[in-house]
Structures are given as structure tokens and as C-alpha cells.
Design brief:
This protein is α/β, with parallel strands linked by helices. It folds into two domains: 12-178, no CATH class; 207-531, Alkaline Phosphatase, subunit A, CATH 3.40.720. It has 23 helices and twelve strands. Strands 5-4-6-2-7-8-3-9 form an eight-stranded mixed sheet, sandwiched between helices. Strands 1-10 form a two-stranded antiparallel sheet. Helix 4 runs antiparallel to helix 6 (121-147) and helix 4 crosses helix 7 (149-165). The protein is globular, with a radius of gyration of 30 Å. The termini are far apart. Mean pLDDT is 84; it is low at 1-16, 271-277, 538-545 and 547-569. Keywords: Cell membrane, Membrane, Transferase, Transmembrane, Transmembrane helix. Pfam families: Sulfatase. It is a multi-pass membrane protein. Its EC number is 2.7.8.20.
Length: 569
């Protein structure tokens, strides 16, 4: 029994090629696989490219004799300079492989707003595996540098090259670029403060339904089949906008909601405040948003979502911008008839929509105009969270196919609208259906990025003639469009950086292009300062009380002049 482990090792090694019995080739194989994986994680590069890249690396290593005994010198125990640059590249590869597009604004904002109560437990497992594989890569690279003197000689140049080419480090230069930009307030000059000049005599209610990651790109049947068909059915009696693109700082949930409700990109507060890595006490306090405008018109406003409102500052945003009730996982989960029917983020959408109907009934009984904003979860990357009602309708879910979840989300929202209509809850109500942002990396990623992508945006209302509008716009144009669809008259058909798509006026995307807008966001701070004007840094620990000093009050006698010294006895 004592010799069983060595015997098993010897037997296993007999089945391996002689070259792979050496530590050298195991180390080179790990480096080659990581190099192949890093290249395969880039957009427009197929996953199978990992294999030829790794094989090519091993062939070059064999030809050059990397790590071979003939090129070894006495090993040095110094740590390679490239370890930190390699780790930074590993972080970038993880973000690119997980989300498809690395958005530094999203990283900074979530660090500021807090990631408490997040879902997606599979992301944590993936991050752990990435970390372990990165540690193995760094160990193998350290071995190669220490054992091959040629790598020791050129490794410092490699460290510089890795730092210079890492896209993550471009964000560090954002502040410097803003300082040297000749015109650092172009975006801020384009901003038009949202103002309602006139309101209709009988203002309509508003139901705003955000569909997590359900972009309009899925409507292409040639690539995605009938996954989007239920929304296409709704679109036959709605105003449907084709061409609502995504610009910088609008590509995650909070950024998408702020873009469509405030008419601005979500430029994180970091670098402007000492509180950049502390939980935010307010979210974009310097601008008025949809909730502020409707609250000033005596609307009763509610927000509902299956996920926690503590994640990414959702609750802070809605409470500070006019909403009376903010209901998330913490408030809704105790109301479940089946407590265990939740996912890692929170409530499934069939349950959430049941609660949505109940909330609209409550708002109707209360009287007066109301507004309700709702955020789904079914389409959340990477695989979605299809509800039980969908599984009963669509069959077994393989846990990977995002198109299954897209169809589920589309079907659930169509069923919700039809149910509300049947119960008479949509009279004098504008229904807005929109994706919060384009989806991140999913199983259909290669098909999604094969062409132009746009967001879902459609309006259903009693006074709206169904038709399709071809536009060149962004989600920032949703705010003024919704206001005009509700019958409000706004200044110059504009609000924030948005232009009403019902007005015929050119949008900023149409006039200047997305590249110009994105470049301005990277280089300017004036609009960023406007968004966060009034944000107070977090309060530090209370100052300890100072010891009380006894105050002595002199009497008139005490104030008598002292006798000269010579007069004293």
C-alpha cells in the first residue's frame, strides 16, 4: 500500500509522450493554453482558435528550445517584472470573456455604487477558476524566466509591452485627456434641462417595462429564428423604433435606466470625489429625471424588480428621483406563496409580473395618475433565468441556450400586457417596452456581433398609430420621446442629451455619430460634474467630544488693578 502512489504515477507516465513527462512541457503547455484562450476571448475571434494558437506556441517553443537544458543557466530566484502586467491582462481577458465588451465605466460605477446582494452565483465560481488558473500561469511563467536565461534578458521589455498594450490601462488616462482637451464642455453644452412647458388635461398613466438584455437584434429570424416573435406580435399594434443604438456609459442596467430616464450617459463619479470607492449616498443628484418630472405633476410612482434594490444603487436612484415605492427582492420575496421559487438574483419574472398586476390594481384604487417602472431578469447574461411558466410551455431548458430565455422573456411580457388589457388596467396608459441595454456575452454572441445591433423600444397607447420608425438614435432619446408620447410639451423637443423621436428633429447620434459622442465622454468632465453636483462624500467616524473646559467669570472685584510690587508688605 505504501508504494501504490508512486506506482500509479509511473504507470500513468508510460501513456504520456516522452516530452510531456518533463516539467518544461507542462509549463509551456499552460502558457500556450492561456495565450490561446486570451486570443479566443477577443471579439470576432472564434473559440476554436484557442487550439491552433496553443499548438503554434508549443511548436515555436520546441524550435527555439525554450526552457531546454542547453539554454539554462544557474536559476535566479528574482521575481519576473512581468507578473503584474500578466495579471492585469488576465483581468482584462476575464472581463472580455465574461461580458464580451469591457466597459471601464461599468467597473468604476459598480465599485462606487456597491455590489452588495448581487446575483449570478455562477460568475463567482468562474472568477474563482480564473484566479486559480492565473496563479498557475504566473507560476509557470516564473519557472520559464528563471530557467531560461534568454527570457530573463528580454522579460523587462515584455513587461513594458504588456503594460502599454493593455486596454484596461487606457481608462487611467481619461482624466489626463480631459485636462488637455481644448473643449472639455461640448457634451454639457448639448445638455437641455428637462422642462415640461404644458401638460395634457387628463395626463396618462405610464407603465415602463425594461426587458433585461432583450435587444431588438434578436428580431432577425435568419439568425435567431422565432425567439423574438412574441414581441413582434406586440409591435404590430405599437410604434416600434428601429435603430436605437448603444453609446458609451449606457451599456449596463443602471446606465441604461439612467440614459432612458435622465437623457444622459452614466459617467461615474470616480476621480471627481473622494468617495469614489465608497457606497454612493445619491445617484446622479445633479439632474432631473423622468421620476422628478412626473412627481412634480402629482404622479404616484412605483419601481418593481425581482433583484435586490441594494445592488448598483438602484434603490438610491429611484428613491431620490421621485418614486414613492421601491420594491425589490427584499420587499417581494416574503410575499411569495412558494418561498423556494427564486433564482440567484431574486424573483422569476412570472412571479414578478403577478405582483406587478397587484401593484397596478393598488395604484388604480388610489386614484390620480400613476407611473410604474418594472425590470425583468429572464434575459440576464450569460444564460438567462427562464421562469417555470416558460418551461411548462417551451419544454426543458438546457441551461445554456440564450434564445430559450429570450423567447421566454418576450412571451412573458406579451402575456402581461394582454392580461392588463383584459382586466381594464391600461385605459389612458402609455406602455413603454424597452431593453435596458444590449446583451453581454451569451451563447449567441458570434451571431449578435455579426452585424449592427440595436435596442428594443416600442410604445403602445390609445392615441398612437402603429407603425415602424427607422431612426439613428440612442437610449438617451427615450426620455423626450416618452414625454411627448404622454402628451407633454417639452422645450425644443429635447430633454438631457435626448431628442424626441416623434418630432422629426435630428438626434445627436444622427448629427455627430456614436464615435464622436463616445470620444467626448472619454475626454470631458463638465457633464460628469453636472451629473454628480451635490454628491457629498461619506461621513467619517464621529469626532470624539472635546473635554469640557470650565469657564471662569471674573467679578468686578477680581478685575481691580493689582498693587505695585513695592506696595506689598
Amino acid at each position: 500500500m505504501e508504494n501504490s502512489a508512486p506506482r500509479r504515477s509511473i504507470m500513468i507516465s508510460r501513456f504520456l509522450p516522452p516530452s510531456l513527462r518533463q516539467l518544461r512541457w507542462w509549463a509551456l503547455l499552460v502558457i500556450g493554453l492561456w495565450l490561446g484562450f486570451a486570443i479566443a476571448a477577443l471579439p470576432h475571434v472564434p473559440p476554436w482558435s484557442m487550439v491552433p494558437v496553443a499548438a503554434g506556441w508549443l511548436l515555436v517553443a520546441r524550435w527555439c528550445g525554450w526552457g531546454a537544458r542547453a539554454h539554462r543557466r544557474p536559476a535566479r530566484r528574482a521575481w519576473p517584472w512581468s507578473l503584474l502586467p500578466i495579471a492585469l491582462w488576465g483581468l482584462y481577458v476575464y472581463l472580455a470573456n465574461s461580458f464580451g465588451i469591457v466597459d471601464l465605466g461599468a467597473v468604476f460605477f459598480h465599485l462606487q455604487a456597491g455590489m452588495e446582494a448581487h446575483g449570478g452565483g455562477e460568475r463567482i465560481v468562474t472568477a474563482l477558476l480564473y484566479t486559480l488558473s492565473m496563479i498557475l500561469l504566473l507560476a509557470c511563467f516564473t519557472w520559464l524566466v528563471r530557467m531560461d536565461h534568454r527570457w530573463r534578458r528580454g522579460e523587462r521589455l515584455l513587461a513594458v509591452a504588456l503594460l502599454v498594450t493593455n486596454p484596461l490601462l487606457y481608462g487611467i488616462g481619461q482624466r489626463g485627456a480631459a485636462i488637455v482637451t481644448e473643449d472639455g464642455a461640448w457634451l454639457d453644452r448639448q445638455y437641455v434641462e428637462p422642462v415640461i412647458l404644458e401638460a395634457p388635461g387628463d395626463p396618462p398613466n405610464l407603465l415602463l417595462l425594461y426587458l433585461e438584455s432583450i435587444e431588438r437584434t434578436y428580431a432577425d429570424k435568419a439568425r435567431f429564428g422565432n425567439a423574438y416573435a412574441p414581441l413582434e406580435d406586440l409591435g404590430e399594434r405599437a410604434v416600434v423604433f428601429d435603430g436605437v443604438r448603444q453609446v458609451g456609459n449606457t451599456g449596463w442596467t443602471m446606465a441604461g435606466m439612467i440614459a432612458s430616464q435622465c437623457g444622459t450617459p452614466l459617467m461615474p463619479a470616480g476621480l471627481l470625489h473622494d468617495s469614489q470607492f465608497e457606497p454612493l449616498g445619491k445617484v446622479v443628484p445633479g439632474v432631473d429625471c423622468l421620476g422628478d418630472l412626473l412627481d412634480a405633476r402629482d404622479y404616484t410612482l412605483s419601481y418593481m424588480g425581482g433583484a435586490s434594490t441594494r445592488f448598483a444603487g438602484k434603490g438610491v436612484f429611484y428613491r431620490d428621483h421621485g418614486f414613492d415605492r421601491v420594491l425589490g427582492r427584499e420587499e417581494l420575496e416574503p410575499r411569495l406563496e412558494e418561498p423556494g421559487y427564486v433564482n440567484s438574483w431574486g424573483l422569476y419574472d412570472d412571479t414578478l409580473y403577478d405582483f406587478t398586476v397587484e401593484e397596478i390594481h393598488r395604484l388604480e384604487r388610489q386614484g390620480g395618475p400613476w407611473g410604474l417602472v418594472n425590470l425583468s431578469i429572464t434575459g440576464h447574461a450569460p444564460n438567462g433565468y427562464p421562469a417555470r411558466d416558460c418551461r411548462e410551455r417551451q419544454g426543458e431548458f438546457d441551461g445554456v441556450d440564450i434564445l430559450y430565455s429570450v423567447e421566454c422573456s418576450a412571451w412573458l411580457v406579451r402575456r402581461l400586457v394582454e392580461r392588463l388589457e383584459e382586466e381594464g388596467l391600461l385605459e389612458n396608459t402609455l406602455v413603454v417596452i424597452a431593453s435596458d441595454h444590449l446583451t453581454m456575452r451569451v451563447s449567441a454572441w458570434e451571431e449578435l456581433i455579426a452585424g449592427e445591433r440595436d435596442n428594443t423600444f416600442m410604445l403602445l397607447g390609445e392615441h398612437l398609430e402603429p407603425h415602424h420608425e427607422d431612426v439613428e438614435a440612442s437610449t438617451m432619446d427615450i426620455l423626450p420621446t416618452v414625454l411627448e408620447a404622454m402628451g407633454f410639451v417639452i422645450d425644443w423637443h429635447r430633454a438631457g442629451l435626448g431628442v424626441s423621436l416623434l418630432s422629426g428633429e435630428p438626434t445627436l447620434v444622427e448629427e455627430h455619430g456614436r464615435e464622436t459622442l463616445n470620444a467626448r465622454m472619454r475626454e470631458e468632465t463638465a457633464l460628469q460634474e453636472r451629473l454628480w453636483e451635490g454628491l457629498e462624500p461619506p461621513q467619517g467616524p464621529p469626532t470624539p467630544p472635546q473635554p469640557a473646559v470650565e469657564q471662569i467669570v471674573e467679578t468686578p472685584g477680581d478685575q481691580a488693578p493689582e498693587a505695585p510690587p513695592e506696595a506689598l508688605p
